[in-house]
Specification:
The protein has 10 helices and 9 strands. The chain is an alpha/beta fold and about 300 residues long. The structure holds guanosine-5'-triphosphate and magnesium ion (MG). This is GTPase Era.
Length: about 300
Amino acid sequence: MSAHHSGFACFVGRPNAGKSTLTNALVGEKVAITSSRPQTTRHAVRGVVHRPDAQLVLVDTPGLHRPRTLLGQRLNDVVMTTLSEVDIVGLCIPADEKIGPGDRWIATELAKASRTTKVAVITKTDAAPKKRIAEQLLDVVRLGQDVGIEWAHVVPVSAVADDQVGLLADLLVELLPEGPPYYPEGELTDEPEIVMVAELIREATLEGVRDELPHSIAVVVEEMAYREDRPEDRPLIDIAATVFVERPSQKAIVIGTKGARLREVGSAARAQIEALFGSAVYLDLRVKVAKDWQRDPRQLARLGF
Ligand SMILES: Nc1nc2c(ncn2[C@@H]2O[C@H](COP(=O)(O)OP(=O)(O)OP(=O)(O)O)[C@@H](O)[C@H]2O)c(=O)[nH]1
Ligand SMILES: [Mg+2]
C-alpha cells in the first residue's frame, strides 16, 4: 500500500477574493460563512478534505488588508500566524479584478515564508471572459517573478460554477508530505457548534447592509440547549444570541421598521441553523450597542478576538 499523505494548506488573499467560497467548495459543505461584503471571515476556519490515501486540512483566513482598527490588525495577525504554520499557501486572486497594490503586498509577505510551497489560485473565472483569465494567468506569473515566488501551480477555478475545483484539490493533495490523518473520517471541520451558529447569524445579518455596518457587527450566542420535554422524534433547540453593533443608529438599521429586518435575519439564520442540526430551532435574537468595539481591546477580548 502507498503511504498516507496529510498536511495543511491555507488560502490567503484580499478581502472578498473568494477564499471562503472556495474552501466550502473543496470541503463539499459550508464550513465558513461568505458574503459580498469585504472582511467577512474573522478567524482561521478549518475544513477537511478526505481522500482514501490523503487528508488535506484547509485553513481559510481573513482577507489581508490595510488595517484601520484594532480588529483589522488582529485579523491580519491571524493570517500571518497561519501562514507560518502550514505546508502550502494558496494565494487567491480574483479573475475579474486587476492585480493591485494589495495583492502585491500580500505576495511580498508570502515570499518571506521561504519553506512553504506556494500556489496561485485565480478565483471567480465564471465572472471573467476567457481573454481576461489568460491575461490574469500571465500577470500572476509575473507577480511571482517580481517578488521572488516560484508558484508550484497557477490554477484558475470557479467555486460557484464548480469549475476546476476537483483539479485544485488533486494538485494540493499531491503536494502534501507523508503523514497520518489528523481528523477522524468524515469530520469536515473542528469549528465548535456554538461558533458555527454565531457565524450563521452574522452571515444573515450581513445580507443587505452596507458601508461600514458589516464591520461593526459581531454575534455572540449566549445560550444553546435542547428543550426538555420534547417528543424524541421532534427535538427543538433553544438559542439565545446577541447581535452587537457599534452605534445606536446601526442598531436601528439592523432592527428595521417595527422589527421587520431583524425578523427577516432571524428566519434566514434559523433556516441555516436548522439545516446544520437537522432539528427545529427557536431563535431569540437581540441587538445591543457595544460602543466602538472594533477599537477597544477589552471589548475585543470579550467578543473573542
Ligand atoms: N462569480 C463568482 N463569485 C464568487 C466566486 N467565489 C466567491 N464569489 C463571491 O465573492 C464574494 C466574496 O466571497 P467570499 O468567499 O466571502 O470571499 P472571501 O475571500 O472569503 O472574503 P473575506 O472573508 O471577506 O476575506 C461573495 O459574494 C461570493 O459569492 C466564484 O467562483 N464566482
Ligand atoms: Mg472569507
